[in-house]
Write a structure and sequence with these properties.
This protein is of the alpha/beta class. The protein folds into two domains: 2-31 and 272-392, Lyase, Ornithine Decarboxylase, Chain A, domain 1, CATH 2.40.37.10; 36-266, Alpha-Beta Barrel (TIM Barrel), CATH 3.20.20. Helices cover 31% and strands 23% of the residues. It is built from eleven helices and 18 strands. The strands form three sheets. Strands 1, 12, 13, 14, 15, 16, 17 and 18 form an eight-stranded mixed β-sheet that branches. The chain has an eight-stranded parallel barrel with strand order 2-3-4-5-6-8-10-11, surrounded by four helices. The two termini are 33 Å apart. The protein binds pyridoxal-5'-phosphate (PLP).
Length: 395
């Protein structure tokens, strides 16, 4: 009943009556984004981490309305590719509000970014640094260090970053190449449940700051503490206020932060809780008559936007509709799967959810906290299923 209780706990925070009313006029599956919730999450982050600069990682939910809404509140943006930069430019967001945070980028894309006023980049290799020096001369560079992602539901692990010794050498090299060695970046892993991971990372940053200053006379100016702040999934986490105040304290213990540019790159924590995904039951059935577990097939699955259910890493709270809530009704275990003919298209089969006994074909159910990494992960049209449609909740 973990799911039933969690959904009941989260529902009052949502404009749910309005969401349900709007969803009734729409086809499923549909991701509905409530901009008020994004704005509120943005404001909470600002007040929990005063003095920092926020760069929204737009890949989490790249809808124009989301970007425009927080741009009005002063947000900057973290991008990973040229099309993301083009999207921001088309929305009137200028290069100085953009950080090119992907260490893996083509020369032509660096040149494009630089031509459009992007002067802040993240790097983790000498190869990238040489490209930056040629295509974005004089740019500011943050060096990303590698972390293990321990404690995170969606660890980013070993793909990005370099070991601190290499970050040190890259900073020296950047200066030689005429770039500005600006700071150190890291990402503790997405949906990070252990706030102490920021402390561990900052200890490494401190070490690098000191070593570069004393041995090479390079004074770094920036700490990019990445993303990793949580959304509200099945298992509760601490609040943004608790995350923010702890990380600020770790920062103050090691650094004179008033003199530094502290960058935060939230994705999930801004967009996640603002999304509700309305989906329809395509089939609910059993594999044999005496099987205690039912199979619940939804019209959305792994390829339609629920990619983060891989390994059951992200566990969305699921709300079953009112008529399934008659008192005293039995709830039973279900395996939850998507509509395609791919056997990998199963969301939850190890750690089972419970669903009402009366649940039937055609019922609509609601996946909560689905604003981040859903629509942006949907396949183009695998098996003929359209990509996840999105809508802004009308007010
Ligand atoms: C994806 C990403 C983020 C956002 O991470 P969340 O855990 O969603 O907050 C931040 N920074 C970089 C460089 C990223 O790639």
């Amino acid at each position: 009943m973990e799911n039933k209780n969690r959904a009941a706990q989260l529902l009052p925070q949502l404009d749910f009556e309005n969401i349900q009313k709007f969803a009734q006029t729409q086809q499923t599956p549909l991701l509905i984004i409530d901009l008020d919730r994004i704005n509120a999450a943005y404001d909470r982050l600002v007040s929990s981490m005063p003095g920092t600069r926020i760069f929204y990682a737009i890949k989490a939910c790249p809808m124009d309305e989301v970007i425009t809404s927080i741009a009005k509140r002063g947000s900057n943006f973290d991008v990973a590719s040229r099309p993301e930069i083009e999207q921001l430019l088309a929305l009137g967001i200028t290069g100085e509000k953009i950080s090119y945070g992907n260490p893996i980028k083509k020369r032509a894309d660096i040149a494009f970014a630089f031509t459009h006023g992007v002067t802040l980049y993240t790097s983790d290799s000498e190869e990238d640094l040489i490209n930056l020096a040629e295509c974005a001369p004089g740019a500011k560079v943050n060096f990303r260090i590698i972390l293990d992602g321990k404690g995170a539901d969606w660890p980013l692990s070993r793909k990005f970053g370099c070991h601190p010794g290499m970050a040190f050498r890259l900073a020296v090299k950047a200066k030689e190449l005429g770039l500005v060695p600006y700071g150190i970046a890291f990402h503790v892993g997405s949906q990070q449940r252990d706030i102490g991971q920021w402390d561990t990372a900052l200890a490494q940053v401190k070490h690098l700051f000191d070593a570069l200053l004393h041995e090479k006379d390079i004074a770094l100016k920036c700490i990019n503490i990445g993303g990793g702040f949580p959304a509200e999934y099945l298992k509760p986490t601490q609040t943004q206020e608790e995350y923010g105040s702890s990380v600020m304290q770790y920062l103050r213990e090691d650094f004179k932060i008033d003199d530094l540019d502290i960058i935060v790159e939230p994705g999930r924590s801004l967009a996640g809780d603002a999304g509700v995904l309305c989906t329809e039951v395509v089939r609910i059935s059993k594999k044999s008559n005496n099987d205690p577990v039912r199979w619940l097939f939804l019209d959305i699955g792994r390829f339609g936007g629920l990619a983060e259910t891989e390994g059951e890493a992200i566990r969305y709270p699921i709300y079953f509709p009112d008529h399934a809530h008659e008192s005293g009704e039995d709830w039973g275990d279900v395996i939850i799967a998507g509509p395609t003919c791919d056997s990998a298209d199963i969301m939850y089969q190890k750690d089972l959810y419970a669903a009402p006994a009366s649940l039937k074909e055609g019922d609509r159910i609601y996946l909560l906290s689905t604003g981040a990494y859903t629509a942006s992960y949907a396949a183009v049209n695998f098996n003929g299923f359209a990509p996840l449609r999105t809508a802004i909740l009308p007010k």
